[in-house]
Amino acid sequence: MTAMNRQARRRAWATASFHAGAGALSLLWLVPIALVLVTSVRSFDDIAANGLGSLPHSFTLGGFSQAWVDGGQGRALLNSLLVSVPTVLLSLALASMAAFGLARYDLPFRRTLLLLMLGGNLLPPQILLIPVSKISEALGLYDSLYALIGVQVGFGVGFYVFVLHGFMRSIPPEIQQAAVIDGAGPWQIYRRIIMPLTTPALAALGALSFTWIFNDLLWAITVLRTDTKMPITASLIGLQGQFVSMWNVIAAGSVIAAAPTVVVFLRFQRHFVAGLNLGAVK
After folding, report:
1. Which of 3, 31, 101, 229 is 20 to 30 Å from the Cα of 87, by its Cα?
2. Continuous segment of H or E residues that includes residue 138
């Protein structure tokens, strides 16, 4: 009986320690976010008089107005959406068609193609900055949103194909065989059978890819030059230079930049969790 009590006591301590550690880590992660949110609704005079880390003495949305209008966050947010949404749609369309062919048909060198697509994503993007910039200039696309969309599609579609390939291979082949017996061609099988069954994977991958593309900074400052064409991540750098000591405006700009990805996460939260296991089923 004593041994059982000791074991129960150890389990209780282990559980309490785990929750205490998890709570401390959560608090450590939430404090900066809370500080940004509170700072974004404080006035500049309040921060200047009482300090950035003090309790707020006033609340205002003036920082959001300055960041949106004077800081160009509204235009930058539109640029980010004009890049992110078409890139996600085009990437998933191309990746789903390629994954369908590689997963459902016995194509020659399909394993080699998959490895090449995956290997391309393992290259450090820093070594490709100059080549990508030169190629976009040679094609006449430099300093345009089309260049940024092309870069994002080109560097993302290989990974999407690899992930969707693993998901599509898990679909029972009897479904496709039955469709072939009924006279369905490859396009009909892809559009009417495989795509509806792949919708959960596409939703998860779409939510994840939107977050990655929307938050990207490296490729934006590589292929874009004009300030009015910059996405919101690059616009935040200009906002810090324009409002050097106005922390309320900078914090408000950060909240505006984070809002779309937070909305997407909350809307597709269960797909985010499912996306962690995408392609794991063989």
Report:
1. 101
2. helix 129-138
Least confident range from 2-16, 96-110, 135-149: namely 2-16
Q: Which two tokens stand for residue 133?
A: 């910039």
Amino acid at site 117: M
pLDDT digits (tens, 9 = 90+) for 68-107: 988 889 999 999 999 999 999 999 999 999 999 888 888 7
The DSSP line for 202-230 is HHHHHHHHHHHHHT--HHHHHH---GGG-
Q: What range defines the domain where residue 11 resides? A: 2-62
Residue that the structure tokens 């290989």 belong to: 158
Domain count, the chain: 2
Residues 105 and 245 in one domain: yes
In one letter, which amino acid is 111? R
Same domain, yes or no, for 50 and 190? no
Cα 189 to Cα 31, 97, 136, 185, 209: the distances in Å are 50, 11, 37, 6, 26
At 77 the pLDDT is: 93
Identify the CA nearest to 43 among candidates 274, 252, 278: 252
